[in-house]
Amino acid sequence: MSLQRLFDMNGAVCSCGRVHRFSSDVICGKGAIRQLPAAIRRLGGSRVFVLSDQNTFEAAGKQVLSLLEAEGFPYVSYSFPQAHLEPDEQAVGSAVMHYDASCDLIVSVGSGVLNDIGKILSSTSGRPYIIVGTAPSMDGYASASSSMTRDGLKISLPTRCADVILGDTDILKQAPLHMMKAGLGDMLAKYISICEWRYAHLLCGEYYCGEIADLIRHALGRCMEQADGLLRREEAAVEAVFEGLVIGGVAMNYAGLSRPASGFEHYISHIIDMRAAEFGTPCDLHGIQCAVGTLIAARMYSRLSTVQPDREKALAHAAAFDLPAWHETLRQLLGKGAESMIALEKKERKYDLTSHAERLERILARWEDILTIIREEVPAPEVLEDLLHKLDAPTTLRELGTDEALLPVIAAATRDIRDKYVLSRLAWDLGIPDELL
């Protein structure tokens, strides 16, 4: 039903006034991998470049090569040798250097990082691209961007969508349980992203589409209904999470931005990843970190709901804010990755006192509307915490290997990752950046 709603919106005039378009073919279900050769033919492929890593080659790469051989497709296969593949310049460079230019179609076998690299390779080579999913672990399957680390900063690099997204539930349900939990964690993040999208529209005039938001809510609800079955690797639960993740990616394409699928909670994950890349500190799967970020956000929103905004307090806080000192704090937290964030602020000027005063007046005027949005979109933190405990998933930064004492500065640093109005920016505008933690 969720996927059908997705396709029904494709090419139709939406109530938001836009025409949403998505050109990828989504093939999901039991035995879906057998449809790969036909998909290659539809795209005009005759010689295939297959990208995998050591784990995904065992999970599905061998099946892909067997299917290609059985159907008479010549291919070149490259499998990354690393036990843990980082989404950075080195990995992309390795894929480019091993790519055979005589291949006219690219197939990635994997999930997050391999899909992101496959999209980059397809975008730069101009070749059609198919992703064979091996885990319902993240929402990038259908997005037109790649989440990468460049110069130490976590970025969303514009690339392209896969022409075919193939999810065989026989393969997906065999994925490591931790990866399936990560997929559900990435879906839980949508509670926060939709909330923030709505009030950013209210306060900043950002584009918002209620139809896209409803699509996300429906997919998220289905995932929550099936969550208990994930631990038992039930096909319905695995399919619900995979389809929900695909819908999240398509929603970003429909909207032309990442608002439907990510916000403050994703930036918590990005900060952890940036510290890991710079200092070698621990990190976990993106969706696992997003789940913890979602719980942190839910607690903060619960406390925000009890706040009575104070104009004078907010103005005094902004006037006293020491931007150079804050930049030094960012450098201590993130190392060289902070420099890109500091440079971005020179363009954004979100700490400018005039801009702040204007935003503050809009916040004060619409405060009850903001509280209504929070109540409608964000579940009680106890609900999320109970679910994560049932899944035996982390609920704290400490369980992710991050010092809990860093939470205030990590939460504050999320203000500077993107030019996006999220919880931490709202808290700063209200003059209460540390009072919600």
What can you tell me about this protein's structure?
The protein folds into 2 domains: 2-175, Rossmann fold (3-Layer(aba) Sandwich), CATH 3.40.50.1970; 184-207 and 257-429, Dehydroquinate synthase-like, alpha domain. 56% of the residues lie in helices and 10% in strands. The mean pLDDT is 95. It is globular. The protein has 437 residues and is α/β, with parallel strands linked by helices. It has helices at residues 2-9, 36-42, 54-70, 89-98, 112-125, 169-172, 177-188, 190-204, 210-230, 235-255, 264-279, 286-304, 311-320, 323-334, 337-348, 353-365, 367-377, 381-390, 407-413, 423-429, and strands at 25-29, 48-53, 75-80, 105-110, 129-133, 145-150, 153-158, 164-168. The protein is built from 20 helices and 8 strands. A 6-stranded parallel sheet has the order 1-8-5-4-2-3, sandwiched between helices. A two-stranded antiparallel sheet has the order 6-7. Helix 5 links the parallel strand 4 (105-110) and strand 5 (129-133).
Question: Which SSEs are present, and which pair or pack?
Answer:
Layout: H1 2-9, E1 25-29, H2 36-42, E2 48-53, H3 54-70, E3 75-80, H4 89-98, E4 105-110, H5 112-125, E5 129-133, E6 145-150, E7 153-158, E8 164-168, H6 169-172, H7 177-188, H8 190-204, H9 210-230, H10 235-255, H11 264-279, H12 286-304, H13 311-320, H14 323-334, H15 337-348, H16 353-365, H17 367-377, H18 381-390, H19 407-413, H20 423-429
Parallel strand pairs: 1-8, 2-3, 2-4, 4-5, 5-8
Antiparallel strand pairs: 6-7
